[in-house]
Each structure stands twice: as C-alpha cells, then as structure tokens.
Amino acid sequence: MAFEVLVRRHRTPVFNYILRFTGDRARAEDLLQEMWLKVVRCAQDYEPRARFTTWLYTLARNLCVDRARREKLRQTESLDAPRQNLGGATDTRAPVELLVDPSPAPERAAHNSRVRSLLEEALLSLPEEQREVFILREYSGIPFREIAEVAGISENTAKSRMRYALEGLRRCLKQLGVDGDLAEDERTVTG
Amino acid sequence: MSPAAHDQDRLLEYAYGELAPSEAKSFEAHLTSCADCTRALEDIRSVRRTMGQLPTVPAPNTGLDSLLAYAQQAARRAQAGPESRSSFWKWMLPSTGVLALVLLIVVTRQVAEETSRARTIPVESSEVKQLPMAAPAPSQVEPAEKKQEDSVRSLRAPAAAGDAKGNFAAHSDAQPKPRRESADAVASKPSSPPARKAAPAPLAKVIAPSERDDFAADAKDEARAGRLAALRKSAGSSPSSENEGGSAAANASSEVVSGVVGGVVQGEGTSRAAVSPSAYDKQPRPAPAEEIARIRNTLAKENPPRAERAKLLNRLCELLYAAQRVSEAESACEQVIREFPGSPAAVNAQELKTKNAAPQGR
Predict the structure, then answer these.
(1) CB burial class (10 A; 0-12, 13-18, 19+) of residue A58?
(2) Residue B87 pLDDT more than 80?
(3) Which of A27, B34, B181, B334 could disulfide-pair with B185, CB 3.0 to 4.6 Å?
(4) What is the mean pLDDT of residues B329-346?
C-alpha cells in the first residue's frame, strides 16, 4: 500500500521535526498521529504539483503552531518543574543546575544526557519562527525555498530567520558552556 | 565585521550545500580572500556541529497499525463513494422531477381558481355600479329618520310580510339576497331585484355609465354638481336626499332606499334601533365582510376605471359604515373625496361621512 510506504518513509523525520518544535515527547506523539489522520482525510486536497514532503511538513507545522498557540494561552510552565528531555528521560534539576556539572567524574551516558538537554534547551530558547526554520533546514534537510513554502514566507525571510537562529544558538551555547569543540573533545556523545 | 548582506545569503547557502557547483567554487575563492566570511562560515559550522549532536529520535509505533487500518478503510470508502452517490442521484433526480411537476399542477390549479373567482367580482361590481343609486340614501335616512325607524321596526317583525310600509333587509349588500319591498315599490318595479330598481332614478343618472368616465371632466361635472344641488334642494333639509320627491312612487322608493340604505349605510343606526340579533341574523344575506374584501381586492388588483373605482369606493364606505368599521369607512370616504374631488362620488362620500359622524358624537 502506497500510504504505508509514505508513512514508513516520513514518520521518523516528521516526528523529530514535531518533537524539536514542541519540545515535548508526549505532545509530539499526539501531534504525529493527528497529522497522519489529517493526511488521510485531506488526501484529495493534495496537489501533485507540490512536493509531498513540503505538503507533509506544512500540515505538521500548522498543527504545531496551532497547538503552541493553544498551549501558550493556558500554560505558564514553572521553571522549577521537573522536565523530560526529548529522549523521554526525566531530568529533575532546574536549568541553572544543568549549566554546571558538579560531579567531578560523571558517567559518560549521564553526561551525554545532560548535554543533550542543554542542546534542547538552546533550541527551545529560540523564537518559534526561527526555531521552525532551523529545524526544517538542519534536521529535516528541507531547502530554504521549500521552507519558505512550508512556513508561508519568502525565501529571503527564511534565510534571514535562519541567520538569526544560528546567531542565537551560538550565543546560547556559549552561555551554556557548550560549543562545537565539545564534540571534537568527545565531551558529548551522539545518540 | 560581518559579511555583506549578499554574501550572508551565499554564505548560508554554501554552508548548507545549496549553491550550484560553479557558484560554490567562486564563493570558495572569495573565502580565501575574505576573513569575515571565513569567520562567519566557521561560526555556522560550529553551531551546526554542536546542534548536530542531538540524536534522531525514532518515531513511536503506537497507533501505527490503527492508522494504516483507518487509511485502508478511507480508501475503500473513497472507491465506493462515487458509486453509491450516483445510485442515490439515480433515484433522487426523477423523484424530484415528479414532485416538482405535481407541485406545478397544484399551483396552476389554485391560480386558475383564484382567477375565476376574481372574474366573478366584475359581475358583482356591476351590481355595485347600480347600487350607488341607493348609496346616497344615507342622506335620506336622517331626514326620513322616522321612515327608517319604521322600516327598522318592520325588521323586528320580519314575518309580517304584508306590512304596508315595507319590510326590507337591513343591509342592501350587493350580494343577491331576498329583499322585501313595500307593496307600492313592488308594484312600481315588477322586476327583480326590487331594491335596485326601487332606487331613485336621478342619482342613477348622475352616475350613469355614459357619464362616469371622468369625474374630473369639465362642464359635465359642473352640470352634475348643479343637478345634485337641485336634488338636494328638492329634498328639503336633507342635503343629500336624492329622491325625486313628490310622487308617491318616489316616496315609496324613498322608503325602500331608506330602508335598504338605512340598513347598509346606517348599520350603526340599525343596531341603535335595537334590531334583535336573531331577526337580523335571520336575513339570508352574504357577509358584508366578504363583499368588503372583494371590493378591496378588486381595487387593489384589477385597477378598475376611474368611475368604477369611485363607485366601488363609495360602496366600500357604505359597507364599512354598515359593519361599524367607522374609522376604515371614514378613510375610504376620504379616499373618494381625495381622489375624485367635486364628483358625485365625492359628494356622496362626504354625505356618508357627515351622516355617520353625527351618530358617533352621540
């Protein structure tokens, strides 16, 4: 079945896009399911002249934006509340504690987990419009021209937002004490 | 110092591999000579390296099976949908057509009935044309109030068929109804309907078909007005007694008219005369309300000629007064006066109004 092929091909990249956009795994799972249902219901609206990927990410993006708006209205999350990182592990420490690792010889996995949390934190610190462009380009590999279509903006605006996102992340990572050299120094571990 | 704006876009595209190979090569050449662009590129690469440490999270399998099942079901529905829809329309279209046809037939029938009913109105209105002969009688009523009372009294005893004074229907509706005339009147007018025939001739002449084309027309109107004035004078104190007083027959017909019109126009008077409802109701006559409605309908829809319209309005005044719908009657009279100033119809309407205004004051 063609639909199953499409689902299997796109579900993980789209899920990661939603997860990084929302910063909440449970919400991302929920939105992913909602998005595929929407794909089934709106299949007749799909125009073959548009790329399927673009259409798919447009649906996902709209769902994310709508949900974020609704959440913003009702939610004022406590900074001290226990948080769950995007991998699903719960980190009970406040962000301030995450900035400095107090343990002299932390286990590598735990360290990686903490750094990952910092990266997620940095990503979530970006304004929504910059974050979505960064995620689409950096993690989903969507070119700027298509990002413009997905977000309903011009290509120049997409590039401009990308520049701001990169600059914002650079500053934030520097603040958090995380930079590109960490990977080279093997102070972070992928996966 | 940051790179120029155009370089920033190219830098971004270069960093993400979106530049065409030839452009990429020329940009690399530019990088060798531009420290700012080189530094900016290094910043981008650094951030990308760091942020690239975020692992790809596998999508959950939760709900995948149900999603695929739902998609299959939807696909089946989409395939079956157009067929079932076409079979629906296969039945729906003809039945809608039949329904529309039936509806059309019913509506056409009703319209035809309405039209034929409306056509009967001119016949009645032709009766009405003659009735204005009796219409001026309200003016007779007051001077001949005693006579009217007599006729009203006769109504109280409708069984007294041989009443010499004559027993008349309390209302001289245009509808056919049995009217009893005085012996004299019947003798003088052998043919039926007696009430109409018994009406005084001069007024019939006044609003004769030959003369009723245009009330506002020149000398004819003046002549008519003069004749009316003469008639009024001949009637003595009654300003609108259009009887050609003098002859016995005329007196008798005056009685007839006063009786008839006294009932019709002075409906209020009739009721004042305490005609018992039972006696009144025993008179087999069509409802004045029906005639009022028909006249109004004719006036509204058929746009009758001026003279005809004036007569119909006159008749309407009479009927409305008879039905004690005084305010409506007054407005009908005012309409006649307004529309046909100086015409006999207007004079008649004015008289009706005056006559009926007095009892109101009482």
Answers:
(1) middle
(2) no
(3) B181
(4) 86
Q: Which residues pair with A91 in a beta bridge?
A: A83
pLDDT, mean of residues B256-271 = 37
pLDDT value of position A169: 95
Residues of chain B positioned with their CB less than 8 A from the CB of A33: 62-63, 67
How far apart are alpha carbons B40 and B8 in whole angstroms?
A: 9
Indicate yes or no: CB of B9 within 8 angstroms of CB of A143. no
CB contact, 8 Å: B43 with chain A? yes
**Is A177 near chain B, with CB under 8 Å?**
no
Structure tokens at B341: 């100033």
Residue B289 is predicted with a pLDDT of: 83
Q: Around Cβ B217, how many Cβ atoms within 10 Å?
A: 13
Task: Answer yes or no: is pLDDT of A12 > 80.
Answer: yes
Is this prediction's ipTM beyond 0.85? no
- The per-residue pLDDT for B61 is 86
Nearest to A180 among B50, B57, B78 (CB): B50
Q: Which residue, B206, B56, B64, is CA-closest to B134?
A: B206
**Measured on CA atoms in the order B249, B252, B258, B264, is the torsion positive or negative?**
negative
What is the distance between the alpha carbons of residues A52 and A63, in angstroms, rounded to a whole number? 17
List chain B residues with CB under 8 Å of A191: 55
Kindly determine whether residue A138 and residue B8, on different chains, have CB atoms separated by under 8 Å. no
Contact check, Cβ <8 Å, B47/A123: no
Q: In angstroms, what is the C-alpha Rg of chain A?
A: 18
**Contact (CB<8Å) A1/B71:** yes
B237-256 tens-digit pLDDT: 443 333 433 343 334 333 33
Q: Which residues of B touch A12 (CB under 8 A)?
A: 56-59
Contact B47 A1 (CB under 8 A): no
Tokens 């949900």 sit on residue: A67
